Inverse folding.
């Protein structure tokens, strides 16, 4: 009888150890998979991170935006969703007077939805994304074009990669320079500055939360 109890105890311990080993193997496999797929950017050099940013196919972010003029400064909290060649959507979270305002660009059509009055306005054949400097893909378009002219570069400062470029429209003195900061360890953007011809900050975008290439 005593022997049976000991045998049962050994079996239980063996099963528990086996379960722990299986869980450990599963965890190690997933960590390795994530590292291999490029989610771990800590071993990437400056050129690889630059290429990663320029080839973002989708992202979802919660951002704080500050827009400055000579007279005042306006601040917003926005939610952005971007899918290359599919969808671009921006929703206002704050301030409260325009909370819920949603701007969506899909199939070459721009729609603006005002949640407070439940009204949607639609603009067809609208080239929206090219001129919207609040989006990462607009930054990438500028950077790719200006790099060929020697007007864009990426530099490293401590644990940050800074990508800076002129805009494609040099006649616009109000949107003349852009500077994107990227966390070298994660490869994720942390902030974006849009500056005038004198490099005075006009727009400051802080990425509080961002998921890159997580949307299909």
């Amino acid at each position: 009888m005593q022997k049976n109890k000991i045998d049962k105890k050994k079996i239980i311990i063996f099963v528990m150890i086996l379960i722990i080993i299986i869980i450990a193997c599963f965890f190690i496999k997933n960590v390795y998979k994530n590292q291999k797929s490029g989610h771990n950017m800590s071993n990437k050099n400056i050129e690889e991170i630059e290429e990663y940013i320029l080839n973002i196919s989708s992202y979802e972010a919660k951002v704080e935006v500050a827009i400055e003029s000579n007279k005042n400064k306006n601040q917003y909290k926005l939610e952005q969703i971007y899918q290359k060649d599919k969808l671009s959507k921006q929703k206002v979270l704050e301030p409260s007077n325009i909370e819920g305002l949603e701007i969506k660009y899909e199939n070459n059509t721009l729609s603006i939805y005002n949640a407070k009055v439940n009204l949607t306005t639609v603009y067809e054949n609208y080239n929206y994304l090219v001129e919207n400097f609040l989006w990462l893909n607009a930054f990438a378009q500028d950077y790719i074009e200006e790099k060929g002219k020697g007007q864009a570069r990426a530099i490293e400062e401590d644990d940050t990669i800074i990508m800076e470029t002129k805009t494609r429209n040099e006649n616009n003195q109000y949107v003349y320079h852009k500077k994107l900061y990227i966390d070298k360890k994660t490869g994720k953007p942390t902030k974006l500055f849009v500056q005038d011809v004198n490099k005075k900050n006009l727009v400051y975008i802080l990425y509080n939360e961002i998921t890159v290439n997580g949307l299909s």
